[in-house]
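Can't attach files on this board, so I'm pasting raw text. These are the components:
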Amino acid sequence: MTDFVMEARHVYKAYGIKNAKKAEKTGAGVDVKHVVEAVKDVSLQIRKGDIKLIFGPSGSGKSTFLRCLAMLEIPDKGEIYLGNECLTKPGVDLNKARARIGFVFQHIYLFRHLTALGNVELALRQVLKLPKEEARKRALDALSEVKVTDCASKYPAQMSGGQAQRIGIARALARNPDIILLDEPTSALDPELTGEVIDTLRDLAKEGTTMLIVSHEMPFAREVAEEMIFYDEGRVVETGPPSQFFNAPNTDRAKQFMTRIINRTTRE
Amino acid sequence: MFGWLLNPVYVTWIIEGLLLTIEITLFGVALGLGLGTLLAIGDIYGNKPLKAAIAVYVEFFRGSPLFVQLFLAVYTVPALLNVRIDHYVLAFLVFGLNSAGYQKGYIKGAMETILGDQMQAGLSTGMSKLQTLRHVILPQAYRIVIPSWTNEFCSLTKSTAVVSYGGLSDLIAAGISIKGITYQVLPVWLVVGIIYFVWITCFSKVMDIIYERKKIPGIELLMQ
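---
Top answer:
Structure tokens for the assembled complex are below.
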């Protein structure tokens, strides 16, 4: 019995590994260059109500790790637990598991042919099998929670990026998932729109929503995160409370990264 | 020259011929859509043997003349199996199977432009692959396919001419009969040609309207 909402144990994920294995079998020799190790042995525990923030240079595998947690990518090695259920065991109903995980994408990925309301309603109807009225009510509740009820009948292409991303958050939220994973929810938005999404996340944080966020919004991190995780080259380099990173990171790599990111923020 | 147009017998032949042409086309396009969708899904998600089988199917129906396909279906296959099947049914089937070969390509192409992000989004909400296909991917793919579908309809309408070789009386067969009796070659083909033209143009216009109406609002902005 664990008291973790979600746990990752020694997760490993590489791309191009199949080709490498094939090459090994045929004796052609492994072409190491074509194997990209995005996640190398990452472990992480999240308790109910935790807000953790992963940050680090782009291309370091943060997104891949997050997708592994949601089993949108299947890890090559290691285990993912959702509560007491091991998702990486064969024979697990991944659809059922994903229904308990909210996921917010960097590039939003709303269903383009559905209105905002339709986007939120779809899984309530198809996955939770709620009757029409109830699904509508819950979808509207979720929209009002992220303050975009005025967009309910708009299509994704008719909204601003900030509105669309808040719909994306409402879509993840509406099912009352055990945890919400957010993959750089603001990085595809221009600075003006970033604020409204951050405000939404701040509200969620106040309500005690369990969240794992990949983000470089440092002021926000400082305000809401209980723990920050510095991630580089497929590994967790340093973990600690925001104060540790903002005052004196333990590792040189984190120190270097924080200096750069803080300089950038102040220059803006 | 056009006096034969006043003869109710000839007019009946023409109307019956036109109706058969329309029936075969609509049935063919509809069966082609259903089967083409299954072939497209099979080609994207299937294993190697399934993909190979689909490739053989598609190349057979795209690569051989419709006339030959119809001949095989109406005369050769029933003879080999020693069964009697109505020529109507066989002609309808051939047109559906043939159209599926083409439509598989249109649908697969449309699906592939949508699959990447929309499948991820669907799975992330807890829907299965099948649910995402049904509620997210196909509704978008079909909207994209409408113009290709209209083309398929135009081309299939005119291809129905070959059914006269299977002993069925479509619009062309009606023309041949009337021409044989009245010897008004040019006037008969002129009238038949105009009927095709009017029917196809009207149908295409309707499809264009449906395409515009069903278009996802603001989608042009996203595609830029």
